[in-house]
Design brief:
Layout lengths: L8 H7 L1 E5 L3 H14 L4 E7 L19 H22 L4 E7 L3 H11 L4 E5 L15 H9 L5 E6 L2 E6 L7 E2 L16 E6 L2 E6 L14 E2 L13 H75 L11 E2 L2 H7 L8 E4 L3 E8 L2 E8 L1 H13 L8 E5 L4 E5 L6 H6 L9 H22 L1 E2 L8 E3 L5 E3 L5 E2 L12 H17 L6 H10 L16 H14 L10 H22 L19
Parallel strand pairs: 1-2, 1-4, 2-3, 3-10, 4-5, 11-15
Antiparallel strand pairs: 5-6, 7-8, 8-9, 12-13, 13-14, 14-16, 15-16, 17-20, 18-19
């Protein structure tokens, strides 16, 4: 698109290509390279210089050995623009530089378009400089220029050497008048200047007799009123002084406006602070009143709550259940101290705590299990089920009685030989578990679903109490389908029996016990820490456990009619043997003087 000698001044201006560049030569180099590859002819390198903000104090002065920082910044900017000019020279393309001084780059480019009647502009388009297929305009200044530039300007937006968007220009909206004084050979004061009209007004640009110029290369376009723009080589010194004075005046005015705005904002903040302080005082007084009321109510109800917590449940399990707040639980557990955590299970974390001088177990439930367990345990009251004392809807927690001997799993896994469960206690535990399962199955149709030693707790007398029951309710169903059922509880109960008899882990216990019975060597698998097992009872208990573990659910025994009678008979025998034990030195009958004569 090189310009021929026969072109008119207007055509020459129209064919001129302007390339917007920034301070970072590496970033803008790809934009200029793209323009040089796709266009020829006359180039103009345009730039928006952002002057430094100076303190316009009258005391500010610069010695003879130092220069104004503004001038140093301009000199650095000129050096940067010279690098772009050098690129054009290497490409054998004539080029000149133009720039404007303003803080807003987008507005500065729009000003340059208006001032120089630019109809062809190439500029960067992406803030991050990373090109990808189908990318859009991401640079804020590119979006601003695309929206506000004069409609006669055709703009190519480039990212990393790739055109990503092009805005067509409408030259029908372009208006340029070349007066006779502009043409070569004309005379007068405005000789050598062309008058370019844009929608924002008239701007003068310098030219010489051999080339139509949009302005003189040495003239800087400051952000001053358009009527104050000065052109011509004889006006440069006056223009620079005027521009500098205008810059300081504008800065003073801007600082004054900022100061007044800060005063207004500070006044608003002080007024808001007074209002907020009054509201805070009112809230604090109200909070203190509520705290006093809460303490009075807590003290008045403390004794009543403690008494109700100790009341036994009714015949149908509808005993009193207290309700506790989050703060009470936090105080009871010393802010949920980790040293007080009893266990971390599937359904939540359990802490040991003290409520109203009573030791309790506080179970912090996961929300998905909370309401279901509350409904089950409030209606399911039985001596061999863990007793519910209270609830905390705020904390989704349940408060149970505290059982000091922990779980059956703890007892079977302990290495303390001085505190092992005797065989009599183990038979009683079997009977307790069976009684709890019969109650859940027959009275409420509840399937425990997770019966194991870890969910069987022991009180101070080693009575067994079942917990974590009621995952779902279901009729008797074969566990081979993968569904929970009454039969699956019987299967799990058989495993607990084997654990109590052998004291071993659950791995392959069925096979181990069956082999021992087949070879007549049951004593080899009995837990020696339980004491001397009676052979008949141990054998009967082993066969009962294996029948509960039958793979066919139809062959498993019924708890009420087949399992319970056996365990009840064993428990009665154990109690009788314990009560009948006496030392040889003790007489079998009381002395005669202790017997009532009437009897």
């Amino acid at each position: 698109m090189e310009v021929s000698d026969g072109q008119s001044p207007a055509e020459e201006v129209n064919n001129r290509v302007y390339v917007a560049v920034g301070r970072d030569v590496r970033e803008s180099k790809s934009t200029l390279s793209w323009a040089l590859e796709n266009f020829g002819g006359d180039f103009r390198i345009i730039h928006v210089h952002q002057p430094r903000q100076l303190n316009p104090s009258p005391r500010l002065s610069y010695g003879s050995g130092s220069r104004n920082p503004q001038e140093l910044a301009r000199q650095e900017m000129e050096s940067i623009l010279d690098e772009y000019i050098h690129m054009c020279i290497q490409a054998e393309v004539p080029a000149q530089k133009r720039y404007v001084e303003t803080q807003d780059i987008g507005k500065g480019i729009v000003e340059l378009i208006e001032h120089h009647a630019i109809t062809k502009l190439v500029m960067g388009a992406a803030a991050n400089r990373r090109y990808f297929e189908g990318m859009q305009l991401t640079s804020t200044k590119a979006k601003f220029v695309n929206q506000h530039a004069h409609s006669s300007c055709h703009i190519w937006f480039v990212c990393n050497g790739h055109q990503i968007y092009s805005r067509e220009g409408d030259l029908n909206t372009f208006d340029m008048d070349i007066t006779p004084s502009v043409l070569p050979g004309s005379s007068g004061v405005e000789s050598g200047l062309q008058n370019v009209r844009s929608p924002l007004g008239s701007v003068h640009s310098g030219s010489n007799s051999s080339e139509v110029e949009d302005d003189l290369s040495s003239v800087r376009y400051e952000r001053v009123e358009r009527s104050n723009y000065i052109s011509g080589p004889n006006s440069l010194r006056e223009y620079e002084g005027y521009s500098q004075n205008q810059s300081y005046t504008g800065m003073l005015k801007a600082l004054e406006d900022i100061y007044n705005e800060q005063l207004r904002v500070r006044k608003d903040l002080e007024e808001s602070l007074v209002i907020e302080k009054e509201a805070f005082e009112e809230l604090r007084n109200r909070h203190q009143e509520l705290e006093m009321l809460y303490e009075d109510a807590l003290e008045a109800n403390s004794e009543l709550l403690a008494n109700r917590m100790s009341e036994p449940s009714g015949p149908h399990g509808q005993g009193f259940v207290s309700e506790f707040s989050w703060y009470e639980l936090e105080e009871a557990t010393d802010s949920f101290n980790r040293s007080l955590k009893i266990e971390e299970g599937e359904y939540g974390s359990t802490y040991k705590g003290s409520l109203h001088h009573t030791q309790v177990a506080i179970k912090m439930m996961r929300p998905c299990y909370y309401h279901q367990e509350v409904q089950l345990v409030t209606k399911s009251r039985h001596p061999n089920l863990v007793t519910l004392i209270g609830v905390s809807p705020d904390a989704t927690a349940l408060i149970y009685e505290y059982l000091p001997n922990g779980s059956l799993e703890d007892q079977l896994s302990t290495r303390d030989t001085s505190n092992h469960l005797s065989w009599q206690t183990r038979i009683r535990i079997c009977a307790d578990i069976c009684a709890a399962l019969m109650f859940l199955h027959s009275c409420y149709g509840i399937v425990h679903g997770d019966l194991k030693p870890g969910n069987i707790l022991l009180d101070s007398n080693f009575a067994a109490k079942v917990t974590n029951f009621g995952l779902r309710s279901a009729p008797s169903h074969s566990p081979t389908t993968g569904e929970l059922s009454f039969a699956s509880d019987v299967y799990s109960f058989g495993n607990v029996l084997l654990r109590l008899v052998t004291g071993r882990s659950a791995l392959n216990l069925d096979e181990v016990m069956q082999n021992a019975l087949d070879v007549g060597n049951l004593s080899a698998v009995l837990d020696p820490t339980a004491g001397h097992w009676p052979f008949e009872q141990a054998t009967e208990l082993a066969h009962l456990a294996l029948s509960c573990r039958d793979i066919d659910s139809d062959n498993r025994p019924d708890l009420g009619s087949q399992v319970w009678p056996v365990l009840e008979r064993m428990r009665t025998h154990c109690e009788a043997s314990l009560s009948g034990q006496s030392s040889p030195e003790e007489p079998s009958q009381p002395p005669p003087h202790f017997i009532c004569p009437i009897s």
